Amino acid sequence: MSTLPKYAFFRGKMVPYSEAKVGVMTHALNYGTAIFGGLRAYWNEEQGQAYLFRPADHFRRLMLSMRLMRMELPYTVEQLIDIAKQVVAAEGHRTDVYVRPLVYMSDELIGVRLHGLTPDLTVFCVPFGGYIKNETGAHVTISGWRRIDDNMIPARGKISGAYVNTALIKTDAALAGFDEALVLTQDGHIAEGSAENVFIVRDGTLITPPVTDNILEGITRRTVMKLAQDMGVPVVERHIDRTEVYIADELFLTGTAAQITAVTRVDHRPVGSGEMGPITARIREMFFRVVRGQEPKYASWLVPVYEK
Ligand SMILES: Cc1ncc(COP(=O)(O)O)c(C=O)c1O
Description:
Bound molecules: pyridoxal-5'-phosphate
Radius of gyration: 19 Å
Structural class: alpha+beta
């Protein structure tokens, strides 16, 4: 059970969470016609400050998901960042939080379609620590499910209905005793994790599937690519074959929830040495310094929640 928020941004204003309710006929609830985002605000105890991580990039992606779903709302990226700040400040947690913006088709009617409907925005946040149990040594399987294809449901959009695919992948992996699963594209290449992008390391090069392999275009993925390049680690975007994950030197998952999760076993086979590898460890360490505001070079990625 997760903690319920005290407030939510709902129908254009902040309200107590108990008032942020929709009717059971709501289109999005019946047909999955909603899109969402997920970003973190990292708490810096020394500075008494919470930093939203790359909110402009998260809200730009939210708007792209809206375009895919023919949703129009009057908010700008700057206004959405302000709403996120208000939501985080209202809760006042002195810990890391996860902010969830959700744009949903709010009409209460029967009929599956996208046109002629009324999108609405809600935003709330909850305290959030780790997402994957073993962030420094996860055991993953390769899912029997395939990743949704762009011609079925746009994979690069964060579309609520599409997350049934994630739920099937995640639950089957968890009930079989794994921490996560990798999922293949229709043509059998590695696309990503259930809700994370994936990287392998081979001979000192970081390799990740291209945005045309039905991945969600992750912001943590983009962050890792930049950090690696700045550290002098070459990064290549190309297809990853299934068996490459068995012979990779290192393997890790990236996501707002999963952060940087080292994968040390795939289907009972050790990855590399069976321990978190050196490149993963360096990137992971740098990532956590960056998100907590300890690396001035990347300060432009952070938006403080509290005025000082
Ligand atoms: C399917 C999927 N892939 C990848 C990611 C990672 O994206 P990001 O780093 O932007 O959180 C997520 C999480 O949002 C996701 O749901």
